[in-house]
């Protein structure tokens, strides 16, 4: 017997480059749409527990499709990975603790799969020493590498530049040499 389940996002999508998210199960479908991507109700048939998710991005390009198995009669919360996104987090509070006044990091994404190569610059200053960036991996994982380089301005005004590094994880922590 089909029942109604609630489908939502488990993250704040305001910074993510999402156009709309279509969720489908059997003949039923619903749209999570901007600006708030509020939760939607979906008629769910437990005889087929596969939910299809089709993500359209605000920057255009090919939609990403993903299927997941949903437990019968339970609400579903979709994370970035179900939408073909990766949330990159850069933690730079160690820089502030070491006496940095401000910092800048340039990140570049080099996909190995169907992702979209991208680049961004993040700025850190005052009380804001953590930042996030969503990128299109079109995969549940990073499926590529991140390249990053950063520079720090100390309280005394000295500029410290750091060599380019690579990461295979979307979690990046910055620190000064010797930290």
Please tell me about this protein's structure.
The chain is mostly beta strands. It contains one helix and 15 strands; from the N terminus they run ββββββββαβββββββ. The protein has one helix at 93-97, and strands spanning 3-9, 18-25, 28-32, 40-44, 50-57, 64-69, 76-78, 85-91, 100-111, 118-125, 130-136, 144-154, 159-161, 165-167, 171-173. The strands form four sheets. Strands 9, 10, 12, 13 and 14 form a five-stranded antiparallel β-sheet that branches. A four-stranded antiparallel β-sheet has the order 3-2-5-6, with no helix packed on it. β12 (144-154) and β13 (159-161) form a beta hairpin. The longest helix is centred in the middle third of the chain and has 5 residues, at 93-97. The model has no long low-confidence stretch (mean pLDDT 91).
What is the number of helices? 1
- What about the largest sheet? 5 strands, antiparallel
Portion in strands: over 45%
Helix content: under 10%
Strand segment tally: 15
**Which series of helices and strands comes N to C?**
EEEEEEEEHEEEEEEE
The end-to-end span amounts to 59 Å
Class based on secondary structure composition and strand pairing: mainly beta
* Rounded mean pLDDT score: 91
Low-confidence stretches: none
Overall 3D shape: elongated
């Amino acid at each position: 017997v089909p029942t109604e389940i609630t489908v939502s996002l488990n993250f704040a999508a305001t910074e993510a480059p999402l156009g709309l998210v279509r969720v489908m199960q059997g003949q039923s479908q619903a749209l999570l749409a901007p600006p708030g991507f509020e939760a939607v109700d979906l008629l769910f048939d437990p005889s087929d527990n596969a939910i299809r998710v089709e993500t359209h991005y605000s920057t255009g390009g090919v939609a990403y499709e993903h299927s997941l198995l949903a437990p019968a009669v339970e609400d579903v919360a979709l994370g970035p990975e179900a939408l073909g996104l990766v949330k990159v987090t850069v933690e730079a509070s160690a820089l502030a603790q070491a006496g940095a006044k401000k910092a800048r990091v340039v990140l570049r994404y080099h996909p190995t799969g169907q992702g979209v190569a991208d680049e961004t610059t993040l700025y850190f200053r005052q009380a804001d020493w953590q930042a996030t960036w969503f990128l299109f991996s079109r995969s549940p994982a990073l499926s590529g590498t991140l390249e990053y380089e950063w520079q720090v301005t100390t309280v005394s005004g000295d500029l410290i530049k750091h060599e380019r590094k690579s990461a295979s994880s979307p979690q990046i922590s910055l620190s000064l040499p010797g930290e």
